[in-house]
């Protein structure tokens, strides 16, 4: 199952809670992600979402034990793939920043969930792999595009052709993750950064997220929405508070 833990301070956790299976994602779990993302997006008290696994691992991927029933024909594989694509699309297109907090295994579908997030902080002992070549599966287009844009075509080939595991050090070097710290520091480092984001002007944070998403998707020239975002921000309470705080030489208090 997945659940929402509201932590206060503008932060909520989306928890992959199946530790007895190393948090492997079942069909029902994939299916539940869009609704949970919509719930978090609609909650005005939540400014940052941390995706994490319960227990020792982030996520060991899709539950392969289900494939005989759920993914045995082209039609059922299409339906199963649609569930995964809907889950990663919902996570990747939330209006609020998302951070994957990764410990232990981040394998296959677990990597898909992690790369759908805005940022990835990992335990330095975490292990990463994307394993379709071990299963006779072709990785989905959307997830492959995200992986390529996040790292490089060469590293995407390295992962997808081999299915081999890589260390957090390797993942950090190629841009798959944003920070690697000791296990004892992972939660504090992740939550401190989430708290920083939650304290900033949300009109700026969400505007930046929208623009970066458009650029990553291939937009070269600003469309109407992208052009208007900086202008709309001028009418926001965040802008008024930010300027007033700067002039008064005090910390801003964004709502």
TrEMBL record:
<keyword id="KW-0456">Lyase</keyword>
<protein>
    <submittedName>
        <fullName>Enoyl-CoA hydratase-related protein</fullName>
    </submittedName>
</protein>
<dbReference type="InterPro" id="IPR001753">
    <property type="entry name" value="Enoyl-CoA_hydra/iso"/>
</dbReference>
<comment type="similarity">
    <text>Belongs to the enoyl-CoA hydratase/isomerase family.</text>
</comment>
<dbReference type="InterPro" id="IPR029045">
    <property type="entry name" value="ClpP/crotonase-like_dom_sf"/>
</dbReference>
<dbReference type="InterPro" id="IPR018376">
    <property type="entry name" value="Enoyl-CoA_hyd/isom_CS"/>
</dbReference>
<dbReference type="InterPro" id="IPR014748">
    <property type="entry name" value="Enoyl-CoA_hydra_C"/>
</dbReference>
<dbReference type="Pfam" id="PF00378">
    <property type="entry name" value="ECH_1"/>
</dbReference>
